[in-house]
Write a structure and sequence with these properties.
By secondary structure, the protein is an all-alpha fold. The chain contains 26 helices and 2 strands. The longest helix is centred in the N-terminal third of the chain and has 30 residues, at about 30-60. GO terms for molecular function: transmembrane transporter activity.
Amino acid sequence: MEMTDMKPEEMSHPPMDQLIGMEYCIDSNPSWGGAIVLGFQHFILCLGTAVMIPTMLVPLMGGNAHDKAKVVQTVLFVTGINTILQTLFGTRLPTVIGGSYAFVIPVISVISDPSLVRIADDHTRFKMTMRAIQGALIISSCIQIIIGYSQLWGVCSRFFSPLGMVPVIALAGFGLFERGFPVIGKCVEIGLPMLVLFVALSQYLKHVQVRHFPILERFSVLISIALLWVYAHILTVSGAYKHSSLLTQVNCCTDRANLITTASWISIPYPLQWGAPTFSADHSFGMMSAVLVSLIESTGAFMAAARLASATPPPPFVLSRGIGWQGIGLLFDGLFGTVSGSTVSVENVGLLGSTRIGSRRVIQISAGFMIFFSILGRFGALFASIPFTLFAAIYCVLFGYVGAVGLSFMQFTNMNSMRNLFIIGISLFLGISIPEYFFQFTISAQHSPAHTRAGWFNDLINTIFSSPPTVGFIISVVLDNTLEVRNRAKDRGMPWWARFRTFRGDSRNEEFYNLPFNLNRFFPPS
């Protein structure tokens, strides 16, 4: 058939609820052997953030290498617990609940509190700062628990539309560009080969099969990390970086974080292991801004995970339930002392797309690995010695996947409407541009744009406007609900979205989101 003979509907692709080509959806499971290796792959991937945040914050608090190793173990342990709780009782989507960068700004303002900076002994300062951070996390977690379980976030989500969600989900991925190539550039000799190898294995060689199993596509992260890790280790041992700058050594060498030599063989993290938390209204208010940011970032990541797991978009009731459990996760972060709060791990959502496996069981197995290796400290530390540059190379692909999933929501809207083009264009542009301004300003002026005497107010402004998904969310949702709204339901994608605005609106919701162990009898969905 020639192009000219085609009917108009044959020339374009009709909108589709579910992605084509996903091998396993949320409640279908690969074989046990495959699921265990895939779970291990998700565990390796979440190590990047689990090691990076403590490596950045613990030295500022006055902690030594041993303290840092202990914090990394605690982060992994709590990530495992939170992931199991979220996949069993929260949204039930295949999402890892890991460390969040949104909390870095309020945490740094706690660290630089004059009353803590004055402490002369480094170890005492570390412990006192940790307790102050724990207190702020515990208080602010209450806000998230209330917003979730009161169904307040579910009520707010009634104002969302496919159009309003495009920038939020897209920026949950694209907004993390600082963690991609800028990090590869710090050690190009291992970062660039890693990126090329990962793309080659996961895309070009994905049809290579061993015993009818697409081994290169499924395990591309594990294979490429293993090969480049060995290569990086050979370079490290052979003394290639002996005379390099400290920055190059940190980015290129294996175990520059000194975790292997300082981690205990076996240690079980427990609540209040650093002592009783201390509470301060100023710190807690600052931390609440990060809670709002992680709430919005998680909403975008949950929507992306649902699409990559071939599930329906989570109805308001389920989304609120997930946010409530995330609040409980934040309470655990505060009780155990993980230095920062938690949110949905965007890289693990991207890996669902890369492996084409959105199975919930795989994520639950990965949570088991996190808990296991956090207790066996030395083994966990061995895996945590992977250079950050290797993770950055993988992030380039996986964050891109999540961003593209956000853009895929445009198929349900009318993209020939000038109103829609304006809303998506300005939300995406300012969602990248405003946080970049805050970032560049902070680097050049050595303080954030909001620099008043009220610390909590500074944290509020600097945290919210440093988050691309949050800026995109504020602009797109406000414009979408105030600009020429009358008779625009079809343009905004509401006829498609309407089915997912109540739990009973689509018969598949029960299959995907019902609680296990028949718990729906006690907590009936609204």
